[in-house]
Amino acid sequence: MRVSVIGCGHLGIPHAAAMAEIGHEVIGVDLDQAKINRLNAGECPIYEEGLPDLLATHTASGRLRFTTDLAAAAAFADVHFLAVGTPIDADGRSYDTGQVFGAARALAPHLIRPCVIIGKSTVTVGTTRDLATLLARLAPAGTDVEVVWNPEFLREGHAIEDTLRPDRIVVGVPSPHAEDVVREVYAPLLHNQIPLFVTDPATAELIKGAANAYLGMKISFINGVADMCAAAGADVHQLTEAIGLDPRIGRGGLNAGPGYGGGCLPKDVRAFTASAQSLGALDAATLLRAAEQVNESRPTAALALIEQTLGRPVAGARVTVWGASFKAGTDDVRESPALAVAALMHQRGATVTVHDPHAVPTALVRHPELDYAEDLEESVKGAELIVLATEWPQFRDADPKALSALVEQPILVDLRNLLNADTWRTAGWTVRQLGRPAQP
Known about the structure:
- The protein has helices at residues 12-21, 33-40, 51-61, 70-76, 98-107, 127-138, 159-164, 176-185, 187-191, 201-232, 236-244, 265-278, 282-296, 298-310, 337-347, 360-366, 376-380, 393-396, 400-404, 421-426; strands at residues 2-6, 25-29, 64-67, 79-82, 115-119, 145-149, 169-172, 196-199, 318-322, 351-355, 371-373, 385-388, 411-414, 430-433.
- It is an alpha/beta fold.
- Helix 1 crosses helix 3 (51-61), helix 10 crosses helix 12 and helix 12 packs antiparallel against helix 13 (282-296).
- The radius of gyration is 23 Å and the shape is globular.
- This is UDP-glucose 6-dehydrogenase.
């Protein structure tokens, strides 16, 4: 099939490359000409594992190309994926769907034949309905333009894997014809026994928000329990392993840390909370808001552990933070817990140097007040304390003996419980881990 992907960011680029990988001819559309030029040259403007190779392969073959011309996309494709951003609105609680409706308005005059618009962005309930009404009014093809909502469930750092081998595909469809088109688009995946969950558009819109809200609550729950473990002298890691064996609970996503971040989870929990409030589901709104409050407290909780380990306030201390991206496998620093902790220590008077294997350039844009190091060894020179805040394998595999000669004090706070603490302690380090008892 010929498909377009409108919006070339953390969602659109991996989706376009994956659609080419499963055999479609794909045109990606974005307003940023410089980005388009890089993409057409096979260069990847974001870091996402596996993406550069797919991008280079399919731009070279001609199966995948990029443009700023919506008219060309409309003439080329009969299926159009909307993958534009839906940031949190000015109210701080709901989605700003301006880019979704803006893209639809710009595309509409060029839709002169029947086609299917497939929304990928995370949106407020009712967006599919409103978008279909708008396109029926503005597009020459009128009601022959159908709108499907097909929310993404990508984990950044695993976007290609999650697109090509998802655990499920959810689609909210307005008609049997639209469902047939979706089945044709995803036929190579369905052939591999990927389940397709077909529902109405409103339910599809809510499924994405409910999934991320539940994950946010799960993370906040175990972080709240980590606080209890710290107060009791208990071990959150052992606790997590034990309760995760219960199939009703499950181990996935049940990891104590500095909180959830990124471009999706925080805004999805906020927006789902707002939806619960507006729908009158007040008990649900209260529960969801509590999960938000736990997450919002994580930088302060991390600072308390850091200062306890250091033995004094961080004012005047030289601290190295390992990690800038909100999670490993991506250079995305939106609402990064690692940077939130780094910025808080800077505000309290510490000199903070941040190192990340891939996210230093993006972090520098958002937090120019911090110092940065491109090299791991260089980042720790003269440090009084290292804080491990993002679970990159490069940090897990670092050599504690070699690093101990570079630091002023071999002290490390592991906010991700990533390290083998005994190995580091044997090398002479003082190591504290989140929600775990202090060891000599």
